[in-house]
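for the writeup, i need someone to sanity check this before i put it in the appendix. the sequnce is what the collaborator sent (i think, or maybe the updated version? ugh). structure was predicted straight from it, no edits. if anything looks off just tell me and ill rerun, i have time this weekend
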Amino acid sequence: MVVKDHAISKESFIICACKNCQLWFTNPRPDEKNIAKYYNGENYISHQNKNKGITDFIYRTVRKYTLRQKLSQINSRSKHKGKLLDYGCGLGNFVKVCQENGWKAYGMEPNEQAAQIAKNQTKINLIKDLTALETEKKFDVITLFHVLEHIHQLNKTVKVLLSKLKKRGLLFIAVPNRESQDAAYFKENWAALDVPRHLYHFNETSMKYLAEKNDCRITEILPMTFDSYYVSLLSHQYSGSDNNYLKALKSGYLSNKAAKKNNNYSSLLFIIKKK
C-alpha cells in the first residue's frame, strides 16, 4: 500500500507486510537521525501546546476525559499506587495526572521539543533515555499509549522496558488497530497509518506475537472508543470530504458499532503481564 504523509511532509511511503507475524511496517522509513523533521509541524497536535482551530479544540477536550479514563483503568487493576513510567509521554499530561493521583510517576520522551515542554511547563519527572532508565529501580506499571508504533529499536526497547517492570507489574500498550472498520473504509487515507511517524501497524495477531516472543501474555484487550471519531475526522479531511464533522460522527459510530461483534475497535489497549 502506498500512503501519503498528509500531516506534515506530503511525501508518500510504502507499507509492507510480514507473512510470519502479520505485522505491517513502513518501508523504507526515515532513520532515527532524520525522523525528527516529520514530527516538527504545526499539524502534529500531540507535540504542540497551542489551540489553532476546532480540530485541535476537539482533540484537547477529548484528551481531558481520556486521561482520566486511562488513570481509572490503571487504578482498577493495581493493588497500590506505586511507581509508574509513561514511555513516550509527549507533553507529560498523563504523567502529571498520575502524580496528582498519588503515583510516583515518571515520563520518557525522545522528541526534544516535546520533552522540553514536559520539563519546563508540565514540570514532570523525566528520564532522559534507555541508558538512564537502566539505572532506575523497577516499576509497578509501564504505559505506552500510541507509542509502540513509533519506536525504531522495537525489540530492544521492549526488552529494556520489561526488564524494568516488576514481576507482578503491568504493561499497558495502546495501538491503532488496522483491522477496524474505519481502517477498512478509509484504506490508504486512514489517518492512523500516519506514515512515516508510525513505523509499524498492528492488529491483535501481531500484538500477541510480540507478547509471546518476549515471554509475556495479554491478559485483557480493551476498546478505545473515542479514537474512531478523531481518526475518522482526520481521515475525512485527508480524503477531501465536505461536512467532515458530521461524517466523522457517523463513521466513528459505525466503526464502534461493528467492533462490538469482534472487538476490532479503531484503537485497542492491551494489558500485558510477564509469564
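Residues 54-75 form the longest helix (22 residues). The mean pLDDT is 92.
thx in advance!!
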